[in-house]
Amino acid sequence: MNRQIATFNLGDSRLGIDILLIKEIYRHMSITPIPDSPPHLKGLMNLRGRVVTVIDLNVCLNRPSSEPIETSRLLVLKTDDEIGKYRQSGLPGNISLGHDIVGLLIDQMDDVITIQNSDILPAPPNLEETEDALIQGVIKQGEELIIILDVNEVLKKIMQACSSTE
């Protein structure tokens, strides 16, 4: 079965997530910081009257925090209600993105690639920059590896970090 993966850059790494999970890619960011919040919570943003929680994906992946730059984008994820209709399109049934709108801060948007599920390989053991639980696998494109994130696990990590600071 064909899957489309939205790829993006985060530092020197190229990562990707299933395009069916992305509601929109947003460029103009005015982020309001949240006092005393965990480091991965970059802040809140107003997106056409709706509040978006902005997540610093670098911090989630155990990298230094990043400040938005000219090429930065916000991957606004769909909510559970919005992804329900895509379950018949090959989206795994165990994905839960919650009911709040969440945006992942990335350094630069790249490309959308079409793959087969069989193209996703297990992550190599020397992939140090991120936790294994947050990686669904990797795709090899030429000499480059694209890390496919498990968005479900990324959001679980965020929720655990938030509950541990309460």
From TrEMBL:
InterPro entries associated with the record: CheW, CheW-like_dom_sf, CheW-lke_dom
Q: Which cellular component terms (GO) are annotated to the entry?
A: cytosol
Any Pfam family from its record, for instance, is CheW
SUPFAM superfamilies for the chain? CheW-like
Which SMART domains does this UniProt record tie to the protein?
CheW (SM00260)
What Gene Ontology terms for biological process does this UniProt record contain?
Answer: chemotaxis; signal transduction
Start and end residues of each CheW-like domain:
2-160
Q: What PROSITE patterns does the database record attribute to this sequence?
A: CHEW (PS50851)
Write down the PANTHER family for this protein, in alphabetical order: CHEMOTAXIS PROTEIN CHEW, CHEMOTAXIS SENSOR HISTIDINE KINASE-RELATED
Indicate what this protein is called per its UniProt record: Putative Chemotaxis protein CheW
Upper lineage: Bacteria, Pseudomonadati, Thermodesulfobacteriota, Desulfobacteria, Desulfobacterales
